[in-house]
Write a structure and sequence with these properties.
Blueprint lengths: L17 E3 L12 E5 L5 E5 L2 E3 L8 H9 L6 H4 L3 H10 L3 H4 L3 E5 L5 H8 L3 E6 L3 H9 L5 E5 L12 E6 L9 H6 L5 E11 L4 H4 L3 H8 L4 H23 L5 H5 L15 H16 L9 H10 L3 E8 L1 E7 L7
Helix pairs in contact: 1-6, 10-12
């Protein structure tokens, strides 16, 4: 944990400022210590360079397992393709120069695929996740001097209000137990004039027909290690069937949807090995999470309005996404 992050951190239960139990002179980074609230009643560990505000095991355990196994898979620096950066800039509508030297919150960082994009743009990125994926993110991106990794709960964010110029949450909120309240925690983190982007699975007839919704009542209750072992064996065969169906004239795209596998053939310029790796990762991501809660565009717009956001835009930019800006002053 870099010392400059301390000014942003707050006790998630009381909102009090935090201080380190051990004072180390001239130290710019802390690897193991304890954060203590002002009244001394709340204590949080800093372990392996990461402040940790949650229990070791929680509903996001499958994501910790997923991202520590596929630690580098979706990093553009690893894949050699700008897949994550293209999705990031398309969804947010931001420009790299806007993020330079600004504090940015990545709410649900996973292994850091989007944090890497923001870091390259020159942002000071606070990458937060509920799961042990924070360890994968730290290992992936620790060479970036502007990286700050925090393990915390989106419903009880451990930051001072109005700390960030930009906040984004991509591929995350639909996997929380209460999507509306998870979203509602984000706007208070924005400075006045700051920008927010969040995306969601799109709740529409086509989405709800996806084969995964027939399987998830079973797979989300399975032992995650067992599910992963099964998928590791069968995903290459499912992918082959999907690719074969995809070549059927006219009907191919529809036929592919009956196969419960993430098939990016024709979408991403991945080699065969990468295609299988991404298929396994995202098929596990479809079937394993405890929660999968798609949303309607009208619902997302209402949430942005209730949060008092301005310049609201709702669109399908890779996923169904909402954008907004926190007004510089409250309307009379």
């Amino acid at each position: 944990m870099k010392i400059e992050l301390l000014g942003l951190l707050r006790c998630p239960l009381t909102g009090q400022a935090l201080h380190l139990e051990t004072v180390i002179k001239d130290s710019l980074e802390i690897y193991d210590d304890v954060l203590v609230s002002e009244d001394g009643n709340q204590r949080y560990s800093v372990h392996k360079g990461i402040p940790r505000f949650v229990e070791d095991s929680n509903y996001a355990d499958n994501f910790g397992m997923q991202w520590n196994h596929f630690r580098r898979t979706q990093l553009d620096s690893h894949s050699g393709h700008p897949i994550s950066s293209e999705r990031f800039w398309l969804a947010t509508g931001w420009k790299p120069e806007q993020l330079k030297d600004k504090w940015v919150l990545d709410a649900g960082c996973g292994a850091g695929r989007f944090a890497e994009v923001a870091l390259i743009a020159g942002a000071k990125v606070v990458a937060l996740d509920y799961s042990s994926a924070v360890d994968a993110c730290y290992e992936n991106l620790k060479q970036h001097p502007n990286l700050h990794v925090v393990q915390g709960d989106i419903y009880h964010l451990p930051f001072a209000v109005e700390s960030f110029s930009f906040v984004y949450s991509l591929g995350v909120l639909q996997h929380t137990p209460d999507v509306e309240n998870a979203f509602a925690s984000l706007p208070p983190m924005l400075k006045k004039g700051g920008a927010l982007c969040a995306d969601f699975y799109w709740k529409r007839f086509r989405t709800m027909l996806h084969t995964k919704y027939l399987l998830r009542p079973i797979t989300k209750r399975m032992d995650q290690s067992l599910l992963f072992t099964i998928l590791k064996k069968i995903t290459p065969y499912l992918l082959l069937v999907s690719q074969t169906l995809g070549r059927v004239p006219f009907f191919g795209p529809g036929l592919k949807r009956i196969i419960p596998v993430a098939d990016y053939t024709g979408r991403y310029a991945l080699n065969a090995e990468q295609m299988r790796e991404w298929a396994l990762l995202d098929t596990f991501d479809m079937l394993a999470p405890t929660y999968d809660n798609p949303q309607k565009s009208s619902t997302i717009r209402l949430w942005f309005q209730k949060a008092g956001m301005g310049d609201i835009q709702i669109g399908h930019w890779g996923h169904l996404a909402g954008r907004g800006v926190k007004p510089l002053s409250k309307a009379n």
